[in-house]
Design brief:
mainly beta, four-stranded antiparallel β-sheet
């Protein structure tokens, strides 16, 4: 039977990926996942991977982020994520200053007011191990929330498919497009592949899922799949 091989998230969108043995999952996604975003100080627009791919190597846990009343620059404002304006509180601090030094431009950190505000598609991304054939196998490069080991009996997912992982139930919303960040080593941030040119049409290396049933997911949990009729 397929099982959960790896669980990953990041408290700050675009920064280094963190692995977990277990984590809570709510309607908005994995606990603490992407609640913060780095933004350019001059226009409060979220940084995007093509602008600053090296940020993928900067890993930070919750303890490395400002407290609610610490280093506050804008207590109530809106940040721009593509064409969305999202309510947030914006902070300075050591992490923002480190990102500024590396980016060569002033960066601040914004904490959004709800959990999946700066997630482009569905709040939980799922990667099937069987779809990595012929591609680099370091799954953190692809930044999925959940990696499912289905190599013994490959799964087939499609829009409407439902997955049960421990106490959590997900529904596939659709495939996720990959961005340029997968071409970069997740530890160094350096470009070392051109994977976007190699991925065959229809294999986008992750599925976006909505949360049907909240709970906790753990590495090793069995995975069951039902398909929409």
């Amino acid at each position: 039977m397929a099982s959960v091989e790896r669980i990953g998230s990041t408290p700050v969108k675009g920064l280094g990926w963190l692995s977990h043995e277990r984590i809570g999952v709510s309607i908005g996604g994995l606990d603490g996942d992407r609640r913060w975003a780095p933004v350019w100080a001059d226009d409060l627009t979220c940084l995007r991977a093509p602008q600053f791919p090296a940020m993928v190597r900067v890993a930070v846990g919750p303890g490395g982020l400002p407290a609610a009343d610490e280093h506050v620059v804008h207590p109530e404002t809106r940040i721009r994520y593509y064409d969305r304006l999202i309510p947030a509180r914006v902070h300075d601090g050591p992490l923002a200053q480190r990102l500024s030094a590396e980016a060569g431009r002033t960066v601040l950190l914004a904490r959004t007011l709800w959990s999946d505000a700066i997630v482009w598609g569905a709040p939980v991304s799922v990667l099937l191990r069987s779809e990595l054939a012929g591609l680099p196998s370091d799954t953190d490069r692809y930044r999925p929330n959940l990696v499912i080991d289905d190599r013994a009996a490959p799964l087939v997912l499609a829009e409407g498919s439902r997955l049960e992982l421990g106490a959590v139930r997900l529904q596939v919303v659709g495939e996720l497009e990959r961005c340029v960040i997968i071409d970069h080593d997740p530890l160094t941030g350096r470009k070392d592949h051109s994977l976007l040119r190699r991925i065959r049409p229809g294999a986008l290396l992750a599925y976006g899922c909505a949360v049907d049933s909240e709970g906790e997911v753990r590495v090793g949990d069995p995975v069951r799949v039902w398909h929409a009729s």
